[in-house]
């Protein structure tokens, strides 16, 4: 079922959903199930599976020579989606990215998804490759998520790359990413919002936000979106802080700020357990306020660790 249908059927109740990462190459699918099982009691309407493109590593080949090798450390997004739908009878949403895909490869990936009965895709540009400072599109691929969304929308109208053949339309519900604290590359928030509007105009039917720790930023973001005519559902994404490392890692990697009150609590933490507990308590507080405000769904970033999300969900759903 499409995300938009799940939201419409919720009758104003806030839905629960979460996101997982494919396991590192070589780990079994059981590690995915171990992360999902504890969360099924909260009846998620959909589970997102992230997509991870290749990275480059350098192998020593003797005599001072290094070989540059492309490796994908977390393959399996599509297979995991199929396995989740088969085992749990819940909608699984693959993340689809521009990076590393030509338009033709994107078209073929979408055909695979359609054959698997997948009704939703979250369409993203993707992050730059770890060893590259900026995002580089495939020469025959997309530079921005809006172009990917346009391609999926065209396929939904039966327009494929080979335009001389009549093709069956696909029927994907398309999601897009939004950034309450601005995407880090955008010149300013207004510019970023206009680019978000372009994604919605191109066919995105709902938005999932980047993680944030200050609900006022989400509420302001939703208001700013509504003011420029973005009227689709905006699903807040929450990430529970899990460790002392997250104190600096999350702001640095995701370009978000901790509010002063949270920062003060984190500064008192002596070990990972204490930071995890602060993360859970903050997550409960944030979720309660969002639910009271009537958000359509709360989407949790598990990063393959369901312990904190379960502790929060127990209090909310
Ligand atoms: P875009 O919407 O293309 O925006 C990227 C930047 O370009 C923004 O600054 C925007 O303002 C600007 N921009 C857009 N259009 C134009 C234009 N026409 N001209 C000039 N500038 C423009 N990454 C992964 O690799 N795999 C994942 O599975 C994944 N999942 C994610 C899930 C969520 C919910 C979120 C919020 C992010 C996720 N990401 C993932 C990270 C995402 O790929 C990065 O944040 C990426 O840098 C931007 O992706 P986007 O789709 O928002 O890009």
Q: What layout of secondary structure does this protein have?
A:
Blueprint: H1 3-9, E1 15-20, H2 30-36, E2 46-49, E3 55-60, E4 66-71, H3 77-88, E5 91-97, H4 103-115, E6 120-124, H5 145-156, E7 173-178, H6 189-202, E8 206-211, H7 215-227, E9 234-238, H8 244-254, H9 260-267, H10 272-292, E10 297-301, H11 307-316
Parallel strand pairs: 1-2, 1-10, 2-5, 5-6, 6-7, 7-8, 8-9, 9-10
Antiparallel strand pairs: 3-4
Helix pairs in contact: 4-5, 5-6, 10-11
Bound molecules: flavin-adenine dinucleotide.
Low-confidence stretches: none
Catalogue the ligands. flavin-adenine dinucleotide
Please provide the count of β strands: 10
**What oligomeric arrangement do these chains adopt?**
single chain
Percentage of residues in strands? 15-25%
Distance between the termini: 21 Å
Q: Helix content range of the residues, please?
A: 40-55%
From the helix content, strand content and strand pairing, which structural class follows? alpha/beta
CATH architecture: Alpha-Beta Barrel
Query: What sort of overall outline do the alpha carbons produce when their principal axes are compared?
Result: globular
Total helical segments:
11
Order of helices and strands: HEHEEEHEHEHEHEHEHHHEH
Spatial arrangement of strands, main beta sheet: 1-2-5-6-7-8-9-10
On the 0-100 scale, what is the average pLDDT?
A: 96
The CATH topology:
TIM Barrel
Question: In CATH's first tier, which class applies?
Answer: Alpha Beta
The total domain count is 1
């Amino acid at each position: 079922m499409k995300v938009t249908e799940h939201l419409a059927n919720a009758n104003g109740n806030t839905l629960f959903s979460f996101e997982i990462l494919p396991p590192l190459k070589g780990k079994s699918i059981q590690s995915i199930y171990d992360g999902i099982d504890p969360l099924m009691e909260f009846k998620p309407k959909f589970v997102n599976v992230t997509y991870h493109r290749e990275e480059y590593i350098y192998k020593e080949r003797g005599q001072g020579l290094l070989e540059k090798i492309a490796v994908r450390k977390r393959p399996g997004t599509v297979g995991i989606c199929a396995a989740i739908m088969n085992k749990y009878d819940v909608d699984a949403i693959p993340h689809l990215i521009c990076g590393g895909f030509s338009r033709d490869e994107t078209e073929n990936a979408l055909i695979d998804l359609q054959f698997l009965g997948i009704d939703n895709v979250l369409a993203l540009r993707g992050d730059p490759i770890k060893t590259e400072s900026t995002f580089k599109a495939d020469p025959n691929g997309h530079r921005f998520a809006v172009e990917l969304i346009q391609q999926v929308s065209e396929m939904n109208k039966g327009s494929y790359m080979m335009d001389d053949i009549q093709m069956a339309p696909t029927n994907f519900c398309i999601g897009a990413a939004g950034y309450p604290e601005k995407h880090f590359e955008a010149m300013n928030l207004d510019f970023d919002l206009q680019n978000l509007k372009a994604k919605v105009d191109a066919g995105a039917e709902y938005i999932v936000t980047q993680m944030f720790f200050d609900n006022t930023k989400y509420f302001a973001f939703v208001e700013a979106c509504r003011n420029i005519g973005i009227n689709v559902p905006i699903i807040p994404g929450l990430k529970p802080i899990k460790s002392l490392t997250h104190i600096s890692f999350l702001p640095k990697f995701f370009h978000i700020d901790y509010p002063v009150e949270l920062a003060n609590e984190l500064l008192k933490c002596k070990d990972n357990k204490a930071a995890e507990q602060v993360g859970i308590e903050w997550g409960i507080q944030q979720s309660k306020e969002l639910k009271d405000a009537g958000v359509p769904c709360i989407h949790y970033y598990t990063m393959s660790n369901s312990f904190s999300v379960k502790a929060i969900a127990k209090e909310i759903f």
